Amino acid sequence: MNKITKYSTLLAVAGTAFMMQACGDDSGSSVTPPEPVKVSIAGVVFGSDYKTGELRWIDKEDGSISEKSLSFYQDSKVISNEADLYVLERMTVDNITKIDPDKLESDGEDAVVWQVSLDDGSNPVDMAFGGKQAWVALQNADSLVKISTEDGKIKKSIKIGEFAYEGASSPYVADIELDDGNLYVLMQRYSQDENYVVTYPNKGLLAIYDASSGELKDTVQLKTKNPSTLAVVDGKVYVATHGEYNDAYGTDADNKRGIEKVNVSKKKSEMLVSGEDLGGGITFMVVEDGIAYVSINLGFDANFAAVQALKKVDLSSKEVSEIEGFTDMSGSMAIEDGKLYVGDRTASKVLVWNGEKKKSLDQPKGVLAPYSIALF
């Protein structure tokens, strides 16, 4: 167990300023967001070697990665709401930890505000923030939970098991987003046998819930299988899909995967850009100012390192272009003010692309390969 587990009992909540990530508050009505919160670090990088995991932070002035680190479970995801940091320790640990990012360098483990344990095997994978509460996606559970960001206590739970494939215990949520009072929930709906072999008998599903009450408002059937990422841009919903794997554990360049644009009011999804244009299926997508950056799964090399392509997609014109010089985005991507941060696990570095060229963030020796990135 990691060093932070001594915080399993709820700690007193620090008076950390909170900024909404979504434009709607938890009641479902639009509000004017508060002034941006200034955080003393640029972001965080979680590294993993599949045995141990470490959290490090990015200096705001020179972009270097910290000498200091905190230990967490090897399979963890970091999420920022632009004011606070959350670490989701996934399957077998099933914890959420809130951290004050301004205290990481000075206080280390004492920067932890609270930590809570969820049901065993629930596997937290994402959070969507509104006001002083957040919805949490539990990939291996038949429910979603809403927690207080002040103390981590569960405020509401809603059942989603009805959307699971026959015999499965979960619809396997891949991503959630909150926008204008709506909670968008992206479901993969795959099947897994007793030998953990995964198949995709169903196409993906997008479910829309009332962010305040948790009541189901609608569902939209996607056109393709195995969705990976969801983005809401100016009220428009985009879903990136990976599709089924081929024999090389990559994906084919066909119309069975790509970026779908969802018309929620008409309950219809259409293919915006297919895998034919992208060169394969999408493992991850980030969006800023109407431009999507997607990692395309091409398989693995002889050393079992991920081989991927980084593509830039204009969501209005549908124009696709490749960003040269990137071959592995499996350590996550994040974007802020036109700077794309790429976790390259093969190179064991965080790369930053500013639209013209890339550079590596300076890092101390012994840093574990990037696994998840969050920016402030």
Write the SSE topology:
Blueprint: E1 41-48, E2 53-59, E3 70-72, E4 76-80, E5 85-89, E6 95-99, H1 104-107, E7 112-117, E8 124-130, E9 133-138, E10 143-148, E11 154-159, E12 173-179, E13 182-187, E14 191-192, E15 198-199, E16 205-210, E17 216-221, E18 227-233, E19 236-241, E20 258-263, E21 268-274, H2 275-278, E22 281-288, E23 291-300, E24 306-314, E25 320-322, E26 333-336, E27 339-344, E28 349-353, E29 358-360, E30 370-375
Antiparallel strand pairs: 1-2, 1-30, 2-3, 4-5, 5-6, 6-7, 8-9, 9-10, 10-11, 12-13, 13-16, 14-15, 16-17, 18-19, 19-20, 20-21, 22-23, 23-24, 24-25, 26-27, 27-28, 28-29
Description:
By secondary structure, the protein is mainly β. It is built from 2 helices and 30 strands. The protein has helices at residues 104-107, 275-278; strands at residues 41-48, 53-59, 70-72, 76-80, 85-89, 95-99, 112-117, 124-130, 133-138, 143-148, 154-159, 173-179, 182-187, 191-192, 198-199, 205-210, 216-221, 227-233, 236-241, 258-263, 268-274, 281-288, 291-300, 306-314, 320-322, 333-336, 339-344, 349-353, 358-360, 370-375. The two termini are 28 Å apart. Residues 1-34 have low confidence and may be disordered.
Key structural traits:
376 residues, disordered N terminus, mainly beta, four-stranded antiparallel β-sheet
Short characterization:
With about 375 residues, this protein is mainly beta.
Lateral arrangement of strands in the main beta sheet: 3-2-1-30
Main pleated-sheet profile = 4 strands, antiparallel
Helical coverage, percent range: under 10%
Report the end-to-end length measured between terminal Cα atoms: 28 Å
Structural class: mainly beta
What fraction of the residues are assigned to beta strands by DSSP? Answer: over 45%
Strand segment tally: 30
